[in-house]
């Protein structure tokens, strides 16, 4: 069964719904979220997207991303997907939103109203192999240099978030994530 996504206007007000592949082929604006998980050492959890994904396969990106289901709150969807993709649960805090439209692999277009969440965890992820090929903790200060050296190895939305909010912005998010009470644990 193909996933149905929520179509939105430029203010994130719901305007309808459609199947995921149709939305990405047509470049229709839809609701999404991106999660940034930091550990106590201040490193950011990155994931390498699984090779079976229908776009951006094998590329490195933020800790987790996805779309809320019809009738599902974005924060609840972010919590759900963090567990489904990386086997993690932790408090998440929304820090920003980003509206962007970018071409992705296979002639598909991401046109998202992307809600950005942060959290902290020292629990080693257990990545779902259908979602993530690999994962790594990377010092935040290393990421802009890595992206600049090999931009083709990173998803367009991850690069866009770094371009828009800069290293200074992500350092502020890191402080927010690490200041929150940590109740992170692996939920089985």
UniProtKB/TrEMBL annotation:
UniProt superkingdom: Bacteria
GO molecular function: isopentenyl-diphosphate delta-isomerase activity; metal ion binding
Main localisation: cytoplasm
Active-site residues from the entry: 65, 112
Biological process terms in GO annotation: dimethylallyl diphosphate biosynthetic process; isopentenyl diphosphate biosynthetic process
Catalysis performed (reactions): isopentenyl diphosphate = dimethylallyl diphosphate
Cofactor(s) listed in the protein's UniProt record: Mn(2+); Mg(2+)
Enzyme Commission code(s) on record: 5.3.3.2
Cofactor note: Binds 1 Mn(2+) ion per subunit. Binds 1 Mg(2+) ion per subunit. The magnesium ion binds only when substrate is bound.
UniProt-annotated binding residues for Mg(2+): 85
Enzyme class: isomerase
Record pathway: Isoprenoid biosynthesis; dimethylallyl diphosphate biosynthesis; dimethylallyl diphosphate from isopentenyl diphosphate: step 1/1
Keywords attached to this entry: Cytoplasm, Isomerase, Isoprene biosynthesis, Magnesium, Manganese, Metal-binding
Localization annotation: Cytoplasm
Keyword Manganese: yes
Residue span, Nudix hydrolase domain: 28-160
Keyword ATP-binding recorded: no
Binding site for Mn(2+): 24, 30, 67, 110, 112
Pfam family, any one: NUDIX
GO cellular component, one term: cytoplasm
Family affiliation: Belongs to the IPP isomerase type 1 family.
Function: Catalyzes the 1,3-allylic rearrangement of the homoallylic substrate isopentenyl (IPP) to its highly electrophilic allylic isomer, dimethylallyl diphosphate (DMAPP).
Protein name per Swiss-Prot or TrEMBL: Isopentenyl-diphosphate Delta-isomerase
Species: Pseudomonas gingeri
């Amino acid at each position: 069964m193909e996933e149905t996504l929520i179509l939105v206007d430029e203010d994130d007000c719901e305007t309808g719904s459609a199947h995921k592949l149709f939305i990405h082929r047509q470049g229709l604006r839809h609701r999404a979220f991106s999660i940034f998980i930091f550990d106590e050492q201040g490193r950011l959890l990155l994931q390498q997207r699984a090779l079976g994904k229908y776009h951006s396969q094998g590329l490195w990106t933020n800790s987790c991303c996805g779309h809320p289901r019809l009738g599902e709150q974005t924060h609840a969807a972010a919590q759900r997907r963090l567990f489904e993709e990386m086997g993690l649960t932790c408090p998440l805090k929304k820090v920003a939103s980003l509206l962007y439209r970018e071409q992705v692999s296979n002639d598909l277009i991401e046109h998202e109203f992307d809600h950005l969440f942060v959290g902290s965890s020292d629990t080693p992820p257990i990545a779902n192999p259908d979602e993530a090929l690999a994962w790594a903790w990377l010092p935040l200060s290393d990421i802009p240099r890595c992206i600049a050296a090999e931009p083709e190895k990173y998803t367009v939305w991850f690069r866009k978030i770094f371009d828009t909010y800069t290293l200074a912005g992500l350092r502020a998010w890191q402080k927010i994530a690490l200041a929150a009470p940590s109740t992170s644990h692996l939920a089985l």
